[in-house]
Structures are given as structure tokens and as C-alpha cells.
Amino acid sequence: MAKLLIVDDEKSIRGALQQVFEYEGHEVRAASDGQEALTEAGSFHPDVIFLDVKMPGMDGLEVLRRLREQDPAALVVMISGHGTVDTAVEATRKGAYDFLEKPLDTDRLLVTVQRALELRGLTASMQALRNQVESRYRIVGNSFAVRQVLERVERVAPTDARVLITGENGTGKELVARALHRLSRRADAPFVEVNCAAIPSELIESALFGHIKGSFTGAVSDRAGKFEQASGGTLFLDEIGDMSLAAQAKVLRALEQGVVTRVGGAKAIEVDVRVIAATNKNLAHEIQEGAFREDLFYRLNVVPIHIPPLRERREDIPMLVTHFSEQMARVDRVAPRTFTDEAVERLAGLEWPGNVRELRNTVERLLILSGGEHVRAEDVALLVSGQSTTSGMGSEFLSVDTFAEFKERAERAFILQKLRESDWNVAEAARRMEMPRSNLYKKIDRFGLVRDS
């Protein structure tokens, strides 16, 4: 059942439409003039409004304008016995959903209502999805450090200035990049992300700039690169410090000239892209080592934003725990459960080498594995590494029967943690573990490890 509002100065028209719609099971109200329509719309909140064009006093087009100011999402169907193309165009320009001519056909009326309600349902679903996505990418915290980051984001977002985001893995560099895009004039255009560390050096140029069919083995068709895909919007170059020098030279040219050339091609393609870059490396050191171009650094580092590690803003941990708990209950269908003050205090005392990403994974683990209505300090001690009297080994390790099973689970957990700390940069994780990269790939495949969604 939908709520419908009929606005017409002719009583017979109001009565006939009300009878048709009430027969279909809808809740219907009627108004005889524009002022009454605005009052009813404000209190009744109709799903669809049928509005006559020609009325004494305030005409339908003026009522439409005010209705849209009152509720930009209002679905208004204009009806007229003297319909002209100009009137229909004007009504559409002012936001009318549809335009119907008198005498009104019952079947057409019902189809119009059905389609309008489908659109309202789709709009509501899209808004819910948008809110869900924004919740996932919300920057949470009230510490001085976070407030400084947010203040800088708000100041620079409306401009097209390039931003270089620095910080350890897991601190939320992508969240800052998405916030910059969301608050910019490019918010409705694409946000395209490239993890420079995850793409092999021999393929990074093709990924960024595209390629021409036949330019290399496997290039079976022309393909646009990330710069072209992001044109009009924002290109986020994550882990820019891992990009090859050859690719850096081409990125520099794209930034300087606003053009890209596909691999194997000769034609320069204009692109309008705002570039945001991020890295967990010290680029000044990389420049000294000859691994990063100094001129590219200055092009990217127009506005620097540094995100502090979680251990330097522990006062944000209670807020983050609450945020992740509510988010997982709402979006990921994890059983809702609150954390006791003692449990939160214990979490706040940890070092968090994996930063906010590690905290999120830990909260999820505690919500899933702990028993009872609340997550307690004892659960943190048992299930979080380094907090129990049994050397931090949780029940998932100690419940196995054989030493071989214990070693298998411990090795899997260790590798997964190192991959998370390295933001799934396999080369970096292998270096930290002093393990050949080929061996690490084999273990990832063996244990069926996948990156967190």
C-alpha cells in the first residue's frame, strides 16, 4: 500500500482518482489548491503526488517547484487538460516524474503509480547501500590527531590539489582518499583505486595507461587504463613508493601534460584526473636511494596528510570498537554484542602493529568466538595474541589434538597476520618474515588465504 496525494481544483477529478486508487488498496488524500497541497505534503509525506497544472491562485508548476524545495525526492506526476509540449518540458525541468493528459486513462494511472513506487523503492535501496558504503569508509575518532586529519581533508577536498597520504599499513589511508573524493566536486564521478604494490612491474604501465591490441602477449583487444577510467574523477595511487621508475616517468608526464599514451600506441589521450597518492614508505629516503623520482614527489606532495598509527591515538580505540561492533551487526550479520569497559581498556593497552585494520579484525574475532552477551576482559586475554597466560594462544590453537595440527594452525595465523600488517604486499611480508617470495605464494595457496573484504 502506498500513500498518494491528489491535487486538483475540480472536485469530480479528485473524487474519481481517489476512488480508483483506494480500490487498489492505497491510502489517499486530496487537496483543492496549491497551499493545501503543500500543507498536506508536509504532514502526510506521500509516496506519489498527482498535481494539476491549471489551478486558481498558485498554479501547478509553482506548486511543483515548492514541493521539490520542500522534499527534493518527491515524486510528482503532473496532470493537465491543456497539455502542451512546452508545459511538459517545463514540468520535467522542474523535477516532475511524469506528465499525463486529461481525460486520464485508469490503466495508465495505475502503471504510472507502479513505476513511480518501483523508482522510490530503488532510490531508497540505493540510499541504504550508499549509507552502508559510507559507513564502511567512515573515519572514526575524536583524538586531536584525527581531528587534525579531518580538518585538513575538509580544507583541501573541494580543490583539485594533489594530496600525498602517508602512514603505516592499516592506518586508514584509503579512508582519507575516499573522504577527499566524497567531499570534492568530483564526488559523482569515478573513484578508481590502483594498488601499485599488487601489480607486477611489467604490467603496471598497461594497468595505468591502457594498451593497444597486439602490443604484448595477451593484449587481445584495446583496453583503457586507470587514468582514462578515472577521467573526470579521482585516481588513488596506493603504495606509490612501490612503482617502477619507468612507470613513475609516465605518471609524471600525465600529471604535467594531462595526457596519457596507451602501451603500443602513439595517440595522446587527454585526461582530467585528480591524483591522490599514498605510501607507507619514507619517500625522502627512497629518493636518496634512487628508487623514487624527486620531481614526481614534488608533483604529488602538494598537500601532505600524515595519518598517525593507532598506538599514538589510543583514546580513539573505544569509539572504534563501538563502530566496528555496530557495523558488523548491521552489515556483516555478526551477532550483536557489547564490550565491557574492562575489555575495551585491555584492547586499548595493546600495541596494534597492524593499526586500525588489525583492531577491526580483532573485534570481529571477539564477536564471533566469545560467549555470553558481552565481550569481557577474559575473552580478550584468551582470544587476542599476547594477552593470555598461555603465551597468547587462543582456544582455536589449544583445542587441537596433535602437535602437527597446532603447528599448522599457528603457521597459518602467523602468515595471515604478517600479510595483513603488510596490507597484502607479498614482497613486503616475505621480507619481514625472511622467507623467499615463492615459498610465501605456495603457503598462501596451501592455506587458502584470501584478503579481507
Describe this protein's structure.
The chain has 453 residues and is of the alpha/beta class. It has four domains: 3-133, Rossmann fold; 144-308, P-loop containing nucleotide triphosphate hydrolases (Rossmann fold, 3-Layer(aba) Sandwich), CATH 3.40.50; 310-392, Helicase, Ruva Protein, domain 3; 400-453, Orthogonal Bundle (Arc Repressor Mutant, subunit A), CATH 1.10.10. 49% of the residues lie in helices and 13% in strands. It has 20 helices and 14 strands. The protein has helices at residues 11-23, 34-44, 60-70, 85-93, 106-136, 144-156, 173-182, 201-209, 226-229, 245-257, 283-288, 294-300, 317-330, 341-348, 355-369, 377-383, 395-398, 403-421, 426-433, 437-447, and strands at 3-7, 27-31, 48-52, 76-80, 98-101, 163-166, 191-195, 234-238, 259-261, 268-270, 274-279, 303-306, 338-339, 374-375. The strands form four sheets. Strands 2-1-3-4-5 form a five-stranded parallel sheet, sandwiched between helices. α2 (34-44) packs parallel to α3, α13 packs across α15 and α14 (341-348) crosses α16 (377-383). The radius of gyration is 29 Å and the shape is globular. Residues 128-133 and 386-395 have low confidence and may be disordered.
Secondary structure: elements and pairs:
Layout: E1 3-7, H1 11-23, E2 27-31, H2 34-44, E3 48-52, H3 60-70, E4 76-80, H4 85-93, E5 98-101, H5 106-136, H6 144-156, E6 163-166, H7 173-182, E7 191-195, H8 201-209, H9 226-229, E8 234-238, H10 245-257, E9 259-261, E10 268-270, E11 274-279, H11 283-288, H12 294-300, E12 303-306, H13 317-330, E13 338-339, H14 341-348, H15 355-369, E14 374-375, H16 377-383, H17 395-398, H18 403-421, H19 426-433, H20 437-447
Parallel strand pairs: 1-2, 1-3, 3-4, 4-5, 6-11, 6-12, 7-8, 8-11, 13-14
Antiparallel strand pairs: 9-10
